[in-house]
């Protein structure tokens, strides 16, 4: 009994003095999380079920397919979304976390360990997705929707050329190129869909493959023709109140012109100027409580509405009117409002259809569980290293918080173009 008491005393002493003991871990857990920790842990939580299952060859078996069924008035036009769901989940997940995966490999920090794990899972998952004998093989020739998410995957691979694309074996890379070219059979709608064809061709050029310049020229020139002014494009000729400027149009224009800009003299700088204005407006739309207006269709994409703002932060192109500390603080508030809401995830960690929580009634006939992972594009700024001023600058109240608290407020003006 005496020896048992001695052992217990030694063990308790070790817990108290060792930095990795229980007491130290408990104290660390009680500390408030930094903004980057909130971003990284949330992105990991969202991406992990998709990538871990694809790496294990169980995505088709385990991913639930929540969608609007035959009772939806538009179901007949879109049909069962199951055949697209897996490519949607893969392409949209990679599209959002790719800049984070592209950071230098680091296994000494929690942030580094999470992204290293997701990078490894992504490489293994893409190998399974491109293996025609795998239970998780994903064909890009299953129908028109495949064009959309092949483009998201292409955009993601462009965003991580060294660690992700460069980390794939030759057979997987060759199969991805083959599958990308299969989408040329799809005739895109005359809308934001034009950018999907351009994104795929830009990707093919970037990896040294044969590409079709016409499938870039027409979309880029058409989108430029649909520019409405003050940083906003039409999704087609009409203007719509929605977030498609952030979901697709402006991020893909920026990335396509980053590869193909030599064919459009001067346009890239104009596009970037417009994107900076759109980012400025997006920041002003974030309420003091960290909410954004529920405007337009596809609200179930959640933080994808912040993609342009995040992209401008990633590329160090935020407008001078916005400090890095206020943008980070505002975006963190939105991320927390969306992903800490009960019902956002099911019991196995998969996203549910909804804007804030589970709201299946807002699901569109063209979306399902896989579609929801576009939300990760709002996390692009995770591609900035931990010591970047975006993360180290002191947090500041964002525009609407200053406005509604009576603090001095900068004027807001439109841009000319």
Task: Describe this structure as you would to a colleague.
- With 417 residues, this protein is mostly helical.
- It has one domain: Glycosyltransferase.
- 53% of the residues lie in helices and 1% in strands.
- The protein contains 18 helices and two strands.
- It has helices at 2-17, 22-30, 35-56, 59-62, 75-78, 82-101, 110-129, 145-159, 161-165, 170-182, 194-206, 214-225, 244-260, 267-285, 307-314, 324-339, 389-392, 399-404; strands at residues 227-229, 232-233.
- The chain has a two-stranded antiparallel sheet with strand order 1-2.
- Strand 1 and strand 2 form a beta hairpin.
- Helix 3 packs across helix 6.
- Mean pLDDT is 92; it is low at 10-18.
List keywords for this structure.
single chain, 417 residues, mainly alpha, Glycosyltransferase, two-stranded antiparallel sheet, 18 helices
């Amino acid at each position: 009994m005496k020896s048992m008491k001695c052992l217990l005393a030694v063990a308790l002493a070790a817990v108290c003095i060792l930095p990795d003991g229980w007491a130290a871990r408990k104290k660390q857990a009680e500390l408030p999380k930094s903004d980057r920790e909130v971003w990284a842990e949330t992105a990991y939580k969202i991406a992990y079920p998709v990538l871990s299952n694809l790496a294990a060859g169980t995505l088709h078996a385990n991913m639930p397919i929540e969608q609007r069924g035959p009772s939806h008035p538009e179901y007949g036009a879109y049909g069962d979304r199951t055949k697209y769901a897996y490519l949607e989940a893969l392409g949209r997940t990679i599209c959002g976390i790719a800049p984070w995966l592209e950071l230098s490999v680091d296994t000494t920090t929690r942030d580094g360990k999470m992204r290293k794990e997701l990078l490894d899972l992504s490489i293994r998952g893409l190998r399974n997705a491109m293996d025609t004998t795998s239970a998780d093989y994903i064909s890009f020739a299953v129908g028109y929707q495949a064009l959309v998410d092949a483009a998201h995957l292409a955009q993601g691979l462009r965003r991580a050329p060294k660690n992700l694309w460069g980390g794939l074996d030759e057979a997987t890379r060759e199969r991805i190129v083959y599958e990308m070219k299969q989408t040329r059979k799809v005739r895109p709608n005359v809308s934001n869909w034009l950018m999907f064809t351009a994104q795929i061709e830009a990707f093919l050029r970037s990896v040294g493959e044969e590409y079709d310049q016409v499938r870039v020229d027409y979309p880029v020139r058409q989108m430029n023709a649909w520019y409405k002014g003050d940083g906003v494009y039409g999704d087609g000729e009409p203007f719509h109140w929605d977030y498609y400027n952030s979901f697709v149009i402006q991020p893909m224009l920026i990335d396509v012109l980053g590869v193909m800009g030599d064919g459009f003299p001067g346009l890239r700088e104009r596009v970037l100027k417009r994107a900076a204005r759109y980012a400025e407006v997006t920041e002003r739309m974030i309420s003091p409580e960290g909410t954004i207006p529920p405007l337009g269709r596809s609200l179930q994409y959640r933080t994808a509405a912040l993609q342009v703002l995040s992209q401008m932060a990633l590329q160090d192109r935020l407008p001078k009117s916005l400090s890095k500390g206020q943008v980070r603080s505002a975006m963190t508030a939105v991320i927390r409002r969306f992903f800490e809401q009960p019902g956002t995830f099911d019991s196995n960690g998969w996203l549910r259809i909804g804007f804030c929580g589970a709201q299946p009634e807002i699901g569109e006939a063209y979306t399902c569980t896989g579609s929801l992972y576009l939300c990760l594009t709002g996390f692009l700024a995770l591609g900035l290293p931990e010591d970047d001023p975006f993360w180290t600058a002191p947090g500041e109240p964002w525009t609407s918080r200053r406005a509604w608290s009576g603090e001095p407020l900068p004027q807001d003006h439109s841009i000319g173009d």
